[in-house]
Design brief:
Blueprint: H1 4-7, E1 11-21, E2 27-33, H2 37-48, E3 56-58, E4 61-63, E5 65-75
Length: 77
């Protein structure tokens, strides 16, 4: 858990993570937006830790699919 003193933030912080699940099921093109670089790094780590996924399909063929994942961190003093 990140402390409020380290980040200058307190309370619930919403982080936006965007990523693509490729045709092979890998996580790629990760982009994270957060109010502090420490939170961005942690959100990036969380997305990288996701397991390999089943790719999306269109007309029976695998396709890349972009996802949005909201992540909420609750930061205490």
């Amino acid at each position: 858990m990140t402390s409020g003193k380290k980040t200058g933030l307190v309370g619930e912080q919403r982080i936006s993570a965007f990523f693509t699940i490729t045709k092979t099921g890998e996580i790629a093109n990760i982009k994270v937006r957060a109010p502090h670089p420490l939170l961005e790094r942690e959100a990036y780590r969380i997305v990288r830790a996701l397991p390999k996924a089943n790719p999306g399909t269109k007309d029976g063929k695998p396709v890349n699919v972009t996802f949005f994942l909201p992540i909420n961190f609750n930061i205490e003093d």
